[in-house]
Amino acid sequence: MTQVSLTNLIAGARAGLLVSFPTDTVPALAAIPEKAGLIFAAKQRSQDKPLILMAASAEDLWLYVKGSEKEYKVWQELAEKYWPGGLTLVLPASDVYDGLRLHLPKVMNPIDPTTIGIRVPNSAIAQTILAQTGPLATTSANLSGQPPLQTIAEIEAQFPKVLTLAMTEYQSEILGIGVPSTVAKWTGINWQILRPGAIKLDISSDNQI
Description:
The protein has 6 helices and 10 strands, in the order E-H-E-E-H-E-H-H-E-E-H-E-H-E-E-E. It is an alpha/beta fold. The protein has a 10-stranded mixed β-sheet, with helices on both faces.
C-alpha cells in the first residue's frame, strides 16, 4: 500500500519521492523540481513535453519567470482573473539566481529550458501540500499519451511506488473536474492557446501588449 497521510506525503515529496494528490482538474503526479526526471521516467514521457511548476500562490511562481514591467502587468492581470484555477501560463523562464529571480533545473523542460509553465490550483488539499513543499514539478497522473487517471485505485495500479493521499485525508474536498488545465503561452505580444482545457480563456486586448 502506498496510501499515506497528508503529513507523510508532504515529507515524502520534500525528500525527493514521487507523490500524487488531487487538484481542481485531474490528479497530479509531482516531485520537487530537482527530481523532475522521476516523472519523465515513471510516465515514459518524451523529453519534449515539459512539466508544469505548481505552487500554492502566484507569489511563489513569479520568482521563476522573467519579463518586462509591461509583461509582468499583463501576466499578473490574467493570473488574478483565473487563479487559483485550471489555467497554466507558459512564460519565459528565469535563467539566473540574483536574489530576485530563481532558476529551475533544466530537467523541468529539457528541450527548451527558456520557458516554464506555471499554475496555482483551486484545491485546498493541493494548496496545503504545496505551501509546505514549495513549488513542485507536476503533470497528470497517467502514462504518457493515455487519458488522465481519476481515482486512487487507478493511480496505485499504474504507479505502485508513488505515494498517494489516503482517502481519509480528503474529508469534504471537492474532487477535480477530470479535465486538464488550459495552457496559454506568452508569445511576447499576446497569448497562444497550446491546449484548450478546464477554463475558457477570455483573451481581450487588455491581455496583450
